[in-house]
Amino acid sequence: MSLVYQLPQHPEKRDEIVEEIRTRGIGFPLTSGLRSLVATKSGNDALLRRTLEEAERRRTNPTASALPSEAEANELLARTRVATLAAAEAMPDFIVKQLIKRTAAYGNTNNWIPLDNLSIAVSYRANVGEEYKVLTVNGMPLGQEVKESKDYSKYVGGASSSGVEYISSLADLFKPESRTSFKPVDTDLLQTRRTIVYEYEVRKPHSRLTLTADKTSAANVGSRGRIWIDRGTNRVLRFEQIATEIPPDFPITAASSLIDYDWVTIGENKFVLPTRSEVLITAINKRQVVQSRNEIRFRGYQKFGAELKVIDEIDEKDFPLEPSPGLMRQFSNL
Questions:
Q1: Stretch (H or E) spanning 22
Q2: Is 87 left (phi over 0), alpha (psi -120 to 50) or beta?
Q3: pLDDT under 70 in the chain at which residues?
């Protein structure tokens, strides 16, 4: 645990600590005091926290939390590739309400300031892809003109779109042309399901990931991250994507997303679709480094063509914090 005390001054040691925990495990109980210490020293780092929790499960129940053999990990990955690509081809046309809580921070402080809450209608059609229409901002509709527009960014400003293609981006990961490299690194418990965690990388020449800034600038980038695969169903339950190989002169300097998937019912059938997501973007705005964060919840999946009025209702419990309209103007050019 001595390395943990070095994290405030040397955050780059996080990966070294994670690798050591995965390799050696822990030989002591993970008490509430230790959890608090690690959270304080690491800035509540999610990867380190989950790695420690899984090491604790492995310590107390070695059989249930055993690391997979190379053969098992490869077989699960192969089954998941087939299942994911098949599911993308069989995806129904649907609509869903997307609730977005937008916050921002100056520099790299992670001191998040509430901006606003958006309600977005997302439609997915196999022959079109994903389309977005704004329904409300802070609970107030913006008029029929906005609802009928396919590009709502000019009406709400800021980092309004998540920038994530929730269906296609996961499928792209498993397509041969992406030449994705996978490496099993750990196990984890997610949604009460036993999962295997894989790290992956897609190099820029084979990547379809694009970052867009200032509504006119775009850059093709590579990506890396992790996926959590359910050992029982061969489906991805969590997908982390971190942009890599970003051009040095591009306004966006860092971008990442984390998507949780679960089984949802559309019509009479069940599909694995997003239930929540978080998108983080760091950009240079008028010589000021600004972070933006979109926390996203998905509500009310329905068949495409259903009445939007059903999903135009906002649940206040989703976003209890009050937005700051004045601060929204400061970040309107993100």
A1: helix 14-24
A2: alpha
A3: 1, 64, 143-165, 306-334
User: pLDDT value at position 107?
Assistant: 84
The answer to whether residues 284 and 254 touch, using CB atoms and an 8 Å cutoff, is: no
Residue 307's pLDDT is what? 54
Burial class (CB in 10 A: 0-12, 13-18, 19+), 98: buried
Decide if 295 contacts 100 (C-beta within 8 A).
Answer: yes
Residue 84 neighbours by CB under 8 Å, 6+ apart: 170, 171, 173, 174, 235, 236
**Per-residue confidence (pLDDT) for residue 270, from 0 to 100:** 93
Which runs of E-coded beta strand occur in 214-251? 217-220, 222-230, 236-244
Q: Report the C-alpha dihedral over residues 150, 155, 160, 163, rounded to 10 degrees.
A: 30
Question: Residue 48: enclosing H or E segment and its boundaries?
Answer: helix 46-60
* Residue 277 near residue 63 (C-beta atoms within 8 A): no
Q: What is the pLDDT of residue 26?
A: 86
Question: Could you tell me which residues are beta bridge partners of residue 113?
Answer: 104
Buried b (16+ CB within 10 A) or exposed e, 278-317: bbbbbbebeeeebbbbbbbbbeebbeeeeeeeebeebeee
Tokens 């990955």 map to which residue? 77
CB atoms inside a 10 Å sphere around CB 89: 9
Global pTM reads: 0.81
pLDDT of residue 332: 47
